[in-house]
Design a protein that fits this description.
Elements (H helix, E strand, L loop, with lengths): L5 E3 L6 E8 L3 E16 L8 E16 L6 E12 L12 E3 L5 E3 L1 E12 L4 E12 L10 E16 L2 E14 L4 E13 L8
């Protein structure tokens, strides 16, 4: 924040609701969240505090096409939008932030995930996907505050035997701050995994 500091002080728990539909090869979920975001002035904790309403909606689904046999594609999709829900994200900034007048408000946030898995045969598979988190920064936040994070990855896997998995993957990530400063991270990885609990079958 810019010259304003506060401590969190919420007196009631978060309220959530959840619905799930599932069939043999797909599922869909819808969830909602309501939060009381209480706060006090960190420099004067005896002064009256304030409250802001936090809320969020989350929809997600997965599906397999076709339902049986090879090759097939598995999709995983997820979208969340809310105000004051950053605490539920891996990278999401802060729940509360001050406007330029010093009044604290719940910060808007949007998150999207889309991943696709292709199983060409029983032994070969690949995955590719992309996700981002976007924060609508409040006017009183520092210019170095988190604004956006992007993440993408691709993986190729081979299971010559049931207990053995060989894989190669590439990931790309970017962070953008409120002042448009940004940084990139890229990495490649080779993996070997052997599961002793699985039954051996050539």
């Amino acid at each position: 924040t810019s010259g304003v500091d506060a401590t969190s002080q919420s007196s009631i728990p978060d309220f959530t609701a959840h619905y799930r539909y599932q069939s043999d090869h797909t599922h869909f979920q819808l969830a909602g969240l309501l939060r009381d975001l209480g706060y006090r002035d960190a420099a004067n904790p005896t002064a009256p505090g304030g409250h802001a309403l936090g809320w969020g909606v989350h929809a997600s689904s997965s599906a397999r096409f076709p339902a049986q046999g090879y090759p097939y594609v598995s999709t995983r999709l997820s979208t969340v939008y809310g105000h004051g829900v950053a605490n539920y994200m891996n990278d999401g900034g802060v729940d509360l932030a001050p406007r330029s007048d010093g009044q604290f408000v719940a910060v808007p946030l949007l998150g999207v995930v889309a991943y696709f898995e292709l199983y060409a045969t029983r032994h070969w598979f690949g995955t590719v996907g992309y996700s981002f988190t976007l924060v609508d920064n409040v006017s009183g936040q520092d210019r170095s505050a988190f604004q956006r994070g992007d993440y993408a990855s691709a993986t190729l896997g081979w299971t010559p035997l049931e207990p053995l998995l060989l894989g190669a993957s590439y990931t790309w990530a970017r962070r953008v701050d409120a002042d448009e400063a940004s940084g990139l991270d890229q990495r490649a990885q080779l993996s070997v995994k052997y599961s002793y609990s699985l039954t051996f079958s050539p």
